[in-house]
Amino acid sequence: MMTFLRPLLGFTQGFITYLIITQAHLTGAGTVFALIALTFPLWGLQIKLPSQKMLFLGVGILILMGLVYGYAAYHLIHMMQASNSFLPYLLASQGLTSAFILFVFYCVIMEEEEVHFPYLTLFSESWQLILKVLLGQFLVYLTWGLFFLAAKLFELLGISLIANLVFSKPFTYIMLPFFFGIAMTILTHYEELLTKLRNILLAFCRFLYPIFVVISLSFLLVIPFAHKALGDFWPVIAGLSIINIVLFNGIFQAGFTLSPYARWFSILIYVSFIIFALYSLYILRFPLTDMHNYGFKPEIFLLFLQLLFLFAYHFCYSLAVFLSTKPWLSMIKNVNTTIALIMALIYLILALPLIDIGKISSKAQLSRLLNNKALINPQNPLSTSGYLVGANLRNANLEGRDLRHINFSGADLRGANLVKANLANADFSKANLSEANLNCANLQFVNFKEANLFLARLSSANLSLAQFDKTNLTMANFAGANLKNAWFNQVIFQKTNFTNADLSNTYGLKQNDLDKACGGNVALPDKLSIEPCSY
């Protein structure tokens, strides 16, 4: 019976997926929530089946994870729909990391049959999970490829029945999870081979780590004498720190009770821990300085969080050199487990609407904007845009301000005064700019996707290469504006005034659009015309 259980779970997962997508008629966010909440437990059971003793606890954990992470996905999709921001995507990637870590803890509980987390079991289950998912998906693609081949072969004979079946929605939604369940059954039967494959990868780490230590340590020791600013190197140092943690844990997971290297090289490793800890502490100043001088921004805060975790790892590894008793560096076991759990919980909290760092950032940036303080650090490539997503700027006076690269997505700018403002490369997607005054403003490369420009004034504005996608331009005034090479798609035109405007070389503009607009002396693309305004 156990042989068929995982394929049955996969089939059930696929059937539920098919019903949700084709029959439930939910919103996009609701669909994703339902998919995660209802199918994640079934997917998790295929990866790691609990014993009879742990059945209720295991199923309960998976159901709870499905509900929590489903709600997080629901919240993040609403964020994506409300504005055009990278933040929900960053939080989603962190949420996936959190789910992976907590799922590993679930696997360990099921393996140990108690709430106990032996270090070697934790990392063994981590590798098993990664290898199972990758190899399982590989088998799914191979199996689907064979069905695809069968469909095409019989199409050559004029028989389309198999193609109709293979390319149908029921087959796609139901059979692919079913194949994954079969893959998990096979891989569970050959877990010893997965362990051997894991040991090969760990052996690679044992070989590569000494080479990396020599290279990275030499680089870090030479930096102070290179006569170059450390600010030029901190992203490289962060990358080296990550590689150091990954490769070191590759050898540490093997469970050595003594150092696998000669004593002199072990001392070199300990020195590298301390050097990395010092550099990791120092580079924290860069995001902190940026937030102090240019305000709180989500991407800088999340960067600071990553760098803080890197420092925590290397600082604790350095302490382990002096405080650990036998076996070798034993303190690191508790360090890795604790930091991983803290990371998972923080990432989960940030993905949920408990702490909305987007709103916190918008309020902080808005305060700086209204107090004439800088929002962008021109020296930092990771801080190239201000964050005013969803900000309330109704009737704000921003005349003549330098607002380049600001993300105003979803902001309320009704009646705002933006005369002669420099808004090049700004993002106004889904923003409300009704009755806003943008006369003579620089709006090059601006994104107006799904923005509301009802009764907005844009006379003599520079809108070259601006993007108008599903934008409401009802009664907007573009008199004398430069719209060369602007891009139009499904735009709402109604009494839109283009008198003396330059619409040459625009993309997507159609005659039926211009029939709802007006203007005299308008430069238009070939074969398009517009009637003079009579209102």
UniProtKB/TrEMBL annotation:
Phosphoprotein recorded as keyword: no
Transmembrane segments: 15-43, 55-74, 86-109, 129-151, 171-188, 200-227, 233-252, 264-288, 300-323, 335-355
Organism superkingdom: Bacteria
Pfam families reported for this sequence: Pentapeptide (PF00805), Pentapeptide_3 (PF13576)
Coiled-coil positions: none
Gene3D superfamilies, A to Z: E3 ubiquitin-protein ligase SopA
Keywords assigned by UniProt, alphabetized: Membrane, Transmembrane, Transmembrane helix
Protein name: Protein IcmE (DotG)
